[in-house]
Amino acid sequence: MGHLYALDFDGVLCDSCGESSLSAVKAAKVRWPELFDGVDAAMEEWIADQMHMVRPVVETGYENVLLVRLLLEMRIPAIRKSLVAEGLNVEGILNSWSKIKPVIMEAWGEDRDALIDLFGKIRDEWMDTDLATWIDANRFYPGVSDALKFASSEIYIVTTKQSRFADALLRELAGVTIPPERIFGLGTGPKVEVLKQLQKKPEHRGLKLHFVEDRLATLKNVIKEPELDGWSLYLVNWGYNTSKERDEAANISRIEVIELSDFSKKLK
């Protein structure tokens, strides 16, 4: 029996937190220039450091831009436009982001699609002007590039990252070419719907299906769909999740928590 692996990108294959944090700071400075008057390099470095800690809450890239502003409001009370930031800390963001996000979006008068476009534009401009630096701000997890190159399984990428950025990193950083029709990025629909599409393809009949994620919430969404009962589900113990989430996943029978070395062996 052959195998098909549907792989999340950020947090499973690639540690993109450095790049996404820097891009988010650039985007926030464009979107809210008045808030960044007087913000020096030391403050920007502090924000980037904090972004590594809150990264587990991010489902779609534009949320990084919101987090940059929220962190700035937490640090500088004079610019606060939402009471949410008062008394908030990293743990509070990790525990309550799904409630915080709609509140600050409304308070700041922000639009999801506009932020997605801005975040993508900032990344495109960075890539156009200095591709090497953009690439270097990312890294693939140890062993992942070789695992992809020599995989005997059918490989698909299922991510909320815009496809062009995932493709560029696979080619330029990992040295891997995955056909564009096998990369399902932002705009291709919810991941549960992508998995349904994949399992219905005639060429996938008889394959054992595997879905690898670093977000527990996404795996829980799959479990809610009886149509997807045939998928083996994995939560990686690296990437952007917390020890609390890994402990919870370990007690869910459908989910296997895996090590990086196990993941590479599975693909090979």
Largest beta sheet: what is the strand line-up?
5-4-1-6-7-8
CATH class value of the largest domain:
Alpha Beta
Structural class call reads alpha/beta
- The CATH topology annotation of the largest domain reads as Rossmann fold
Q: Please state the second-level CATH architecture of the largest domain.
A: 3-Layer(aba) Sandwich
The unreliable regions are: none
Query: What level of helicity do the residues show?
Result: 40-55%
Structural description of this entry:
This protein has about 270 residues and is an alpha/beta fold. It has two domains: about 5-15 and about 140-265, Rossmann fold, CATH 3.40.50.1000; about 15-130, no CATH class. It is about 50% helix and about 10% strand. It contains twelve helices and eight strands. The protein has helices at about 15-30, 40-55, 65-75, 90-110, 110-130, 130-135, 145-150, 165-175, 190-200, 215-225, 245-250, 260-265, and strands spanning about 5, 15, 140, 155-160, 185, 210-215, 230-235, 255-260. It has a six-stranded parallel beta sheet, sandwiched between helices. A two-stranded antiparallel ribbon has the order 2-3. Helix 8 links the parallel strand 4 (about 155-160) and strand 5 (about 185). Helix 1 crosses helix 2 (about 40-55), helix 1 (about 15-30) packs across helix 3 and helix 2 (about 40-55) packs across helix 3 (about 65-75). The longest helix has 19 residues, at about 90-110. The chain is globular and about 60 Å long. The model has no long low-confidence stretch (mean pLDDT about 95).
